[in-house]
Amino acid sequence: MIRSRWLFWHRRDLRLSDNLGLAAAAAMTPALTGVFVVDPESLAAMAPARRWFLAESLVELQQSWQKAGSRLLIAQGDALQLLPRLAALVAAETVAWNRDIEPAQCALDRQLAERLQLDGRKISLHWDQTLIPPDKLQTGAGNPYKVFGPFCRNWRRQLAQKALAGSLGPEGLSPLGPPKNLQDLDPKCRAALEQQGLAPSRKEPDSLLQKLRNSHGFKGVDLCPCRPGEVAAKEQLTVFCERGLITAYEIARNLPAETGTSGLSAALNFGTISPRQVWHAAQASRELCRSQEEEQSINIWEQELAWREFYQQALFHFPELETGPFRAKWAAFPWENCLSWFEAWCEGLTGVPIVDAAMRQLAHSGWMHNRCRMIVASFLVKDLICDWRWGETFFMQHLVDGDLAANNGGWQWSAGSGMDQKPLRIFNPYTQATKFDPDACYIRRWLPELAHVSTADLISGRIPSLERRGYPEPVVEHKLQQARFRAYHATI
User: Are 50 and 139 contained in the same domain?
Assistant: First the structure.
């Protein structure tokens, strides 16, 4: 029996397993074709590390589509123009995709839906990148959450309800398998696509994909803890759970010299693994806990997933966060914005070892430990008194896991301009180093020019002049700058 063809548009869901929109489409018809649209403007603005992660993940995803019996088309251009054209060429009755929370993507969703419906096509949209859809989490008054604590309690309550339901699909939490036995395009349709440069033949490499792989410019592949592709993401999750890292997470997550985190931040951002898959793995680990301490570590890891979704729903409901502070008074903050200080921060040359080590890690590996992200953010904003948006932009230019919602939320949390009850939180970088890198292993790894300096001097920052060997003196004095920041804050 001939079934109507559907077109599935991949965005931040670069996997076949537990992909809610894709699973729904495959349940309707085996005549299913995938597509990923490379937008030149978005690609140009993307960090080299993310371009690498994207390209390698697409290579695997294209192979997965072939194994499932169909194909993934990779096209370059404007999705609003390309997708209706592709839908017409493959005679797709329906175009399906998973919704996004970012302002530009939300606008694109609306415009594309209207365009396709005007063409007489159906659309199928699903929520896939969060455990709970952002429009399903509201206060008792029916408003979006602005405080994490109540949000997290409601989030957990809804997850418990889903778990009790025990069902598959979007209403449950059990991960779905990948679609199988799909039907590829007929030869005539494939020829038409190949003729217009919208699809390579199966015997030829995808030239656009090869170009992506060869032009990302990322040199930290071997140093980056985030590994591209669905297979690698599943392996990292297995290692994190089965080797006891998740049950030691509460303490280990704060030690930048240790491998105490999952390394799945980029996988969750690009969707090479689903939030339901990681949640399911956490519950399986919970059943094997041998102590309250181990169970608490899993609670803390789940809480990090909650923070991710808190920032996602915040950006969805308050799109103005993309360009400015949540707390209006911060728009008038008198930032000093000393360019030379900012450049020293970017280059890892502030003279504060823990800060510089973290910035070097970012530069070389495309990733930074979360504890260090908080340290360097506090230092930029509250020691160097630079606008937090400068740091937010720099991070997005370098992070392999750069996510608009999480990055913006983290920087506004550090600055105190966001949905935060403690706007004057200030990190002392030397205290942080003493507490979380007491043997200076992390500092020595990323600042090899200081390997000869004693541990006490490295974590305190009091390095004798003769031992600096070109390493700079601190650009600022923490105690003085802290006082200056507090004085500025009192004026807004």
Answer: no
Is residue 322 in a domain?
Answer: no
CATH number for the domain that contains residue 448 = 1.10.579.10
* pTM of structure: 0.95
**Are 276 and 345 contained in the same domain?**
no
Instruction: Assess contact for 348 and 360: CB atoms under 8 A.
Output: yes
The reply to whether 27 and 85 lie within a common domain is yes
- Terminal alpha carbon distance of the chain: 69
Catalytic residues: 304, 307, 335, 370, 388, 411
Is 213 among the domain residues? Answer: no
- Antiparallel, parallel or unpaired: β 5-10 and 32-38: parallel
Examine residue 197 and state whether it is found in any structural domain, yes or no: no
Domain ends where: 263, 289, 317?
317
Residues 272 and 294 reside in one and the same domain: yes
Asked whether residue 480 is assigned to any structural domain, the reply reads yes
Closest CA to 461 of 449, 446, 477, 480: 477
What are the strands, taking DSSP E only, across 63-142? 72-76, 92-98, 122-126
The closest alpha carbon to 138, from 316, 276, 319, 308, belongs to 316
Rounded to whole angstroms, the Cα distance separating 487 from 492 reads 10
Please report where in the chains the tokens 């280990």 appear, as a residue: 252
- Do 302 and 411 fall within a single domain? no
- Burial (CB count within 10 angstroms: exposed 0-12, middle 13-18, buried 19+), residue 166: exposed
Give the pLDDT confidence of 408-453 residue by residue, as tens digits. Answer: 999 999 999 999 777 789 999 999 999 999 999 999 999 999 999 9
Domain count along the chain: 3
DSSP sequence for 174-186: SPPPPP-S--PPP
- Rounded Cα distance, 186 and 117, in Å: 25
Measure the CA angle with vertex 426, ends 424 and 428; round to 5°: 165
Give residue-wise pLDDT tens across range 246-289: 999 999 999 999 999 999 999 999 999 999 999 999 999 999 99
pLDDT at 169: 55
